[in-house]
Design brief:
The structure holds two protein chains of two kinds. Chain A is an alpha/beta fold. Chain A contains 16 helices and 13 strands. Chain A has a seven-stranded mixed β-sheet, with helices on both faces. The longest helix of chain A is centred in the C-terminal third of the chain and has 32 residues. The mean pLDDT of chain A is 94. By secondary structure, chain B is of the alpha/beta class. Chain B folds into two domains: 113 residues, Aspartate Aminotransferase, domain 1, CATH 3.90.1150.10; 235 residues, Aspartate Aminotransferase, domain 2, CATH 3.40.640. Helix content of chain B is 47%, strand content 12%. In chain B, the strands form four sheets. A seven-stranded mixed β-sheet of chain B has the order 2-10-9-8-7-3-4. Chain B has a two-stranded parallel ribbon with strand order 1-12. In chain B, strands 5-6 form a two-stranded antiparallel sheet. In chain B, helix 3 packs antiparallel against helix 14. Chain B is globular, with a radius of gyration of 24 Å. The N terminus of chain B is likely disordered. The chains are: A alpha/beta, B alpha/beta. At the A-B interface, helix 2, helix 5, helix 6, helix 8 and helix 10 of A face helix 1, helix 3, helix 6, helix 7 and helix 12 of B.
Chain lengths: 407, 428
């Protein structure tokens, strides 16, 4: 008889803190339950949304009999890559015109970050990456597994529920020369707190003076302010000074393509031949991971970005999503004010993007889940996209109760 | 919106700030020492083929199926599934472990429709990024939970296998497989290697249609291998990228796996739908690990998910939806089985044609291995120099190990191909 399984000693892993929220939500049978966990957009009716323009692109693809499902090259769909670079860097970006950018299609933001991190761990002289505190829960895991050493820099100030700008400058100033710095291009996850453009300029000067290497995570372009260009300004500022950087893009939220896993990694280099060599090394990272990226989602994106009419339709639908979120922020703020909930809740309308860092602690969060069937991550982050005019009052009641109850 | 206008006007002011302010000094690139990487030996062949302007060019390099006109094929069952899916599904994230429905159907293919292991929930399984992704998940899992282990890989094997386990930092060893003189299986040496490996070693086995040689053990040989594995307590990971594609019958192509299951092994299986459903670019596959009981299967699955999360979070939904639509509908499934058999039959037909053409040209060499080997690839036995001549003189593209992708052979080019092979091999 074959011996015991060689994996008999494997223990069950803890639930992923973010994705585990939805698992718990799905198990709850209460009719009032509210999922404010994972950052997937919901309509006013609480339904997932497939953009009209995405449906149109899908129809075009399915009706095109000449389309095949052959392997893409290792770096993915060429059109998609070019268009993605233009989207984040700007159509008139000199870096693109000089052929100094290499862009490879990857599996959404996660995949782009992982491939970039693996490349850095192999080819970059400094293995330290500084990430903001707090940041998306998956960031440290991605970088650790890629072989980088993770440090944090101060970012969120719980006292103001805003940016700890002094702390940020101090910590980046103290980073080892050449260290990699992870920057959220806009709509910081989980706090929703972004630097102003003036602050970005100072950050840029500091980073360049210390020869730190910026690595942007752009998961919400267009979703934050409603303007694709405005939301890319931080990245473009860095590219405009002629320096190098990496940028991970995701189309999960801004095109609603979540499960299709569409994203891109761009590395802006000093020279074209460097970009070409870098690309060849990126291929060596990708090939043993999954050989080549999935074709479907990238084809949808390319179809939309290359057609000016569809592109325009996309910007309109994107702005509508961003506007609904802004409206939810306003409504929640007003609902808490109306209840006289103790505390300053203005951060709800000052923060930007899909998430609000409420400032609630894990105990209050647990209370809200137990008594009000509200599901959110234990760090107090709520996804505004999961709210509707109908459910704002329920959430406001829950927050009010959590904050005012005696312990 | 007020916020948008405020940002826009800041944008206008900002433009004048960055020009010439604090621009980085003219330092050299961070990447000046990055070497150009060597081209992938397999995918580089297609690149070269595409760049060739010759009207006679033939691509028997990468293993993607072609019809008798040399055209890529989208199966009818896939087109129909896509028609049903388009416009009716949302694109929400799949769970980290992928599509439950797709995984269920996929396990049935490998373990059997009525498998007790599936009923008893003993199989830990996650959707993976085709065969590559499934192998990589396993390699990472092996590194994490059996860090002292190595992987035994056959010689030769798909070249990316080496890259996968190397990047997962699992040390590799090899075992004898291909017998050059007979262009068949070196069974005696293979069994020696299995016997001599330390007890409890990890082995990578190709379930059917070995890539690149097309040489498979017979059923009897598989039984002996299984017995020897039991005696040594070895772990078997099956890479099954060609189920249905080899013989035309998926049940028959899974025989090696079924033998191991009958014999009580706890195996791992990497499955791919790239070839047998023609879903190449969709990246659909599955990694499964048979466990002692349901509790262990839950634990193993959770750990596989922990590996997937920092790599790509969750797998792509579209290809999985195609698979579950087809396999979940009896009519579409029947259509698929018919189409897979059609592809396998065409390849078997081309093997016969190539061999006959070479024999009719009066080649003094033996070409029976062409019809004895199975699956997409034929290990011709040609040397790299002969392959280079095929490319330079005849514009025929294949990997330099002499591997011919039979899927690229058609009634239109088989004579040209046979003639070219005859020319470069006769003048040795």
């Amino acid at each position: 008889m074959a011996s015991d399984s060689v994996f008999a000693a494997v223990v069950r892993a803890p639930e992923d803190p973010i994705l585990g929220v939805t698992v718990a939500y799905n198990k709850d049978t209460s009719p009032n339950k509210l999922n404010l966990g994972v950052g997937a957009y919901r309509t006013e009716e609480g339904k997932p949304l497939v953009l009209n323009v995405v449906r149109r692109a899908e129809q075009i693809l399915v009706n095109d009999e000449s389309r095949v499902k052959e392997y893409l090259g290792i770096t993915g769909l060429a059109d998609f890559n070019k268009l993605s670079a233009k989207l984040i860097l700007g159509a008139d970006s000199p870096a693109i015109q000089d052929n100094r950018v290499t862009t490879v299609q990857c599996l959404s933001g996660t995949g782009s970050l992982r491939v970039g991190a693996e490349f850095l761990a192999r080819h970059y002289h400094e293995k330290t990456i500084c990430i903001p505190n707090p940041t998306w829960g998956n960031h440290p895991k991605i970088f650790n597994l890629a072989g980088l050493s993770v440090k944090t820099y101060r970012y969120y100030d719980p006292a103001t529920k805003g940016l700890d700008f002094q702390g940020l400058l101090e910590d980046l100033g103290a980073a080892p020369s050449g260290a990699i710095v992870l920057l959220h291009a806009c709509a910081h996850n989980p706090t929703g707190v972004d630097p102003t453009l003036e602050q970005w300029e100072q950050i840029r000067q500091l980073i360049r003076s210390k020869q730190l290497l910026p690595f942007f995570d752009s998961a919400y372009q267009g979703f934050a302010s409603g303007s694709l260009d405005a939301d890319a300004e931080s990245v473009r500022m860095f590219v405009a000074d002629g320096g190098e950087c990496l940028a991970a893009q995701s189309y999960a939220k801004n095109m609603g393509l979540y499960g299709e896993r569409v994203g891109a990694l761009s590395i802006v280099c000093k020279a074209a031949d460097v970009a070409s060599r870098v690309e060849s090394q990126l291929k060596l990272v990708i090939r043993p991971m999954y050989s080549n990226p999935p074709i479907h989602g990238a084809s949808i994106v390319a179809a939309i970005l290359k057609d000016s009419e569809m592109y325009r339709e996309w910007t309109v639908e994107l702005k509508a999503m961003a506007d609904r979120i802004l409206s939810m922020r306003q409504q929640l703020f007003e609902a808490l004010s109306a209840r006289g909930t103790p505390g300053d809740w203005s951060h709800i309308i000052k923060q930007i993007g899909m998430f609000t860092f409420t400032g609630l602690n894990s105990e209050q969060v647990a209370f809200m889940t137990k008594e009000y069937h509200i599901y959110m991550t234990s760090d107090g982050r709520i996804s505004m996209a999961g709210l509707s005019s109908r459910t704002v009052p329920h959430l406001a009641d829950a927050i009010h109760a959590a904050v005012t109850r005696s312990t | 919106m007020a916020l948008w206008n405020a940002v826009a006007s800041r944008l206008a002011r900002q433009r004048s700030w960055t020009a010439g302010v604090g621009s980085s000094r003219a330092l050299s690139s961070w990447w000046h020492s990055v070497e150009p990487a060597p081209k992938d030996p397999i995918l580089g062949v297609t690149e070269a083929f595409l760049a060739d302007p010759s009207p006679d060019k033939v691509n028997v390099g990468v293993g993607a199926y072609r019809d008798d006109n040399g055209k890529p094929v989208v199966l009818e069952c896939v087109r129909e599934a896509e028609r049903r899916i388009a416009g009716s599904m949302n694109m929400e994230y799949l769970p980290m472990g992928g599509s439950v429905k797709m995984v269920e159907e996929t396990l049935k293919l490998a373990y059997g429709d009525n498998s007790e292991f599936i009923k008893d929930k003993r199989v830990a399984a996650v959707q993976a990024l085709s065969g590559t992704g499934a192998c990589r998940l396993f390699a990472e899992f092996q590194k994490r939970f059996r860090p002292e282990s190595q992987i035994y890989i056959p010689v030769p094997t798909w070249s990316n296998h080496h890259n996968i386990w190397r990047d997962a930092q699992v040390p590799q060893r090899t075992y004898h497989y291909y017998h050059a003189e007979s262009r068949g299986l070196d069974f005696a040496s293979l069994m020696d290697d299995v016997k001599n490996a330390p007890s409890g070693s990890f082995f990578l086995l190709h379930a059917c249609a070995h890539n690149p040689t097309g040489v498979d053990p017979s059923e009897e040989q598989w039984r002996e291998i299984s017995q020897q594995f039991k005696a040594k307590g070895h772990f078997a990971l099956f890479d099954m990228a060609y189920q249905g594609f080899a013989s035309g019958d998926p049940e028959r192509d899974a025989k090696s796996i079924r033998i191991f299951l009958e014999d009580g092994h706890f195996i791992g299986i990497a499955q791919s739908y790239a070839k047998n459903m023609g879903l190449y670019g969709q990246r659909v596959g599955c990694l499964s690990v048979l466990c002692e009981d349901e509790k262990q299967a839950v634990a193993v699955k959770s750990q596989l998910q922990m590996i997937a999360r920092p790599m790509y979070s969750n797998p792509p939904v579209h290809g999985a939806l195609i698979v579950s639509t087809i396999l979940g509908d009896p009519e579409l499934k029947q259509l698929w089985l018919k189409e897979v058999k059609g592809m396998a039959d065409r390849i078997i037909g081309m093997r016969t044609a190539l061999r006959e053409n070479l024999e009719n040209l009066g080649s003094s060499l033996s070409w029976k291995h062409i019809t004895e080997q199975i699956g997409m690839f034929c290990y011709s036995g040609m040397t790299p120099e002969q392959v280079d001549r095929l490319t330079k003189e005849f514009h025929i593209y294949m990997t330099r190990n002499g591997r011919i992708s039979m899927a690229g052979v058609t009634t239109g080019n088989v004579r040209y191909l046979a003639n070219a092979i005859h020319v470069v091999t006769e003048s040795t």
